[in-house]
Amino acid sequence: MLQIREQVNLKPYNTFGIEATATYFTEINSVSDFLELIKNPVYQNSEKLIIGGGSNLLFTKNFKGLVIKNNLKGIAVVFENENEVIVKASAGEVWHNFVMWCIDKNFSGLENLSLIPGCVGASPMQNIGAYGVEIKDVFEELEAYHMTSGEKKTFKNSDCQFGYRESVFKREYKNQFFIASVSFRLKKQAKVNTSYGAINSELQNMNIAQPTIRDVSNAVIHIRQSKLPDPKETGNAGSFFKNPEVSAQKHDELKSKFETLAAYPLANRNYKLAAGWLIEQCGLKGYEHKGAAVHTKQALVLINKNNATGNSVFELSAYVMKQVFEKFGVNLEREVNII
Ligand code: FAD
Ligand code: EPU
Questions:
Q1: In degrees rounded to 5, what are phi and psi of residue 260?
Q2: Taking the model in full, what pTM does it have?
Q3: Tens digit of pLDDT for each residue in 100-123?
Q4: How many Cα atoms within 13 Å fall on the side-chain side of residue 50?
Q5: Which CATH number fits domain 4-70: 3.30.43.10, 3.10.50.40, 3.40.50.720, 3.40.190.150?
Q6: What is the DSSP letter of 192?
Q7: 108, 114, 165, 183: the active-site residue
Q8: Considering the domain 235-338, what is its CATH architecture?
Q9: Is the CB–ligand 2 distance for residue 211 below 6 Å?
């Protein structure tokens, strides 16, 4: 039975731990709940926000609309041959639990994405990525429902227009679809990807020469735990900004001034700069503003250090962007969804 509650505190529903109130709040456990919900006048007359784990959101004000917490559960193999499987996961499955499920079955492809907070349904939104893998590398398709008509639509990989922390769902189709499930094409014969330098050094520390997918997962978990704050202890939403892309000319100019510049060449001849490095070089590690702070172990992460409001985190992010621009002439773009 659908229940719409009023004036609900959103603090437990966002990993920044920001105080904000939703005028209306509901939880859905099935597609039929969603299809029932869209007939409800509260739904029809309100602004809507679907949430999973709330790990990529910053509430800067109360949400004067309907927050829909998606709890759809279920994981199943929907296709299988000698070499591959397609696994379909419902949107409300916790991402890390789903990755562990795949590793338990020895299905490879997602192990580098271990320990990313949040739910399966949000994973295509920004094409989540870490340690040399993005979901687009193994994404098969997703099933979504139009937020107004309730019509079902299947999106294949190319329909999603995946890019670095980007998809069609953050642009043209923003707020237009409820993602109900996501399917991934995974390998049965485990093939590990240790191209990201930090994984190799971690595996060496662990004395592992022939890593299994579980070893890679453990290495990733260990690296992540060493530098990213655990949202259960310190409010945060992971990297607050994207790593910026600059032209080769801009890169060369910066490199001549800043010898240790952290930069990676891209296939299009541009460079990706490590925003964490840029922020650290501005002397901002540990910088505090009204209870918000730049994380001391990873400058790309902003934290809720001491009862920060969403606005103070936002103000801090604007200050960081200004400092980086003044020192390097590089514009940072926020990765976190600002509400
Ligand atoms: P939410 O924050 O609840 O929602 C995010 C966006 O997706 C919102 O716009 C929301 O409206 C929309 N949305 C959510 N579910 C649905 C749905 N079913 N249908 C339609 N729209 C939906 N991200 C990375 O890419 N790589 C990382 O390495 C990484 N590390 C992180 C580390 C930490 C400590 C934290 C806190 C975050 C990190 N993130 C990372 C960011 C975050 O975990 C991901 O973006 C994750 O996919 C968000 O999932 P969520 O369920 O919490 O989404
Ligand atoms: N660096 C610094 N100082 C810092 C932070 C980083 O100099 O304070 C330098 C590091 O020394 C390294 C480089 O920046 O040379 C890259 O750092 P790291 O490997 O920690 O990765 P990142 O670029 O900061 C990105 C993603 C993370 C993802 C990791 C691992 C973005 C915006 N962030 O971080 O994703 O987990 O790589 O692949 O692309 C997220 O999106 O929320 C997120 C955590």
A1: -90, 10
A2: 0.97
A3: 999 999 999 999 999 999 999 999
A4: 29
A5: 3.30.43.10
A6: -
A7: 165
A8: Alpha-Beta Complex (3.90)
A9: no
